[in-house]
Specification:
The chain is mostly helical. About 70% of the residues lie in helices and about 0% in strands. Helix 1 packs antiparallel against helix 2 and helix 4 packs antiparallel against helix 5.
């Protein structure tokens, strides 16, 4: 979080006027820099959220792989897998059906489903393009964070 705050402060210093105009009059360069600031802040927040989501899922899977300890994040990932993200994706539908049909080793099946879910979630992160509520839900729900539990200011 400190890195995000530092980066946002750097953008503010570099792009926004040192003193605000009491009349709201700014020249064209100042207005363009202000628009740039807004776009870059959006991008920085999006990047931060995507990185934190990736870290969260990677840590949960690493713990699962090392000691088979289930976590809330793994359970949320599995709950959101498939139906929570993609509909009409034949490849994903076939993967999950094949894994279910060919169960002969419980541990291997569980690991396979977790890996499918992780791959699918990483694709969601990679394809994310925004910080609107719908984007946040796709990023947060699979790691066990309900947007209803997030302060409404952040969602707005």
């Amino acid at each position: 979080m400190e890195n995000l705050i530092t980066r946002l402060n750097q953008l503010k210093i570099r792009l926004l006027p040192y003193r605000t105009s009491p009349t709201g009059n700014y020249n064209d360069i100042q207005l363009e820099k202000a628009r740039s600031y807004r776009v870059l802040v959006h991008a920085e927040i999006e990047h931060f959220l995507e990185n934190k989501a990736s870290e969260c899922i990677n840590n949960a899977i690493e713990k699962w792989n090392s000691n088979k300890e289930p976590s809330y994040v793994i359970i949320a990932l599995l709950a959101a897998y498939h139906s929570g993200w993609s509909t009409g994706d034949n490849k994903r539908e076939n993967e999950i059906l094949d894994a279910a049909r060919n169960r002969n080793n419980l541990r291997k099946s569980i690991n396979q489903i977790i890996n499918y879910a992780a791959v699918q979630y990483r694709e969601i992160i990679k394809g994310n393009n925004g910080i609107k509520e719908s984007n946040l839900k796709k990023l947060l729900m699979p790691i066990g964070i309900d947007t209803d539990d997030v302060e409404s200011t952040w969602i707005a």
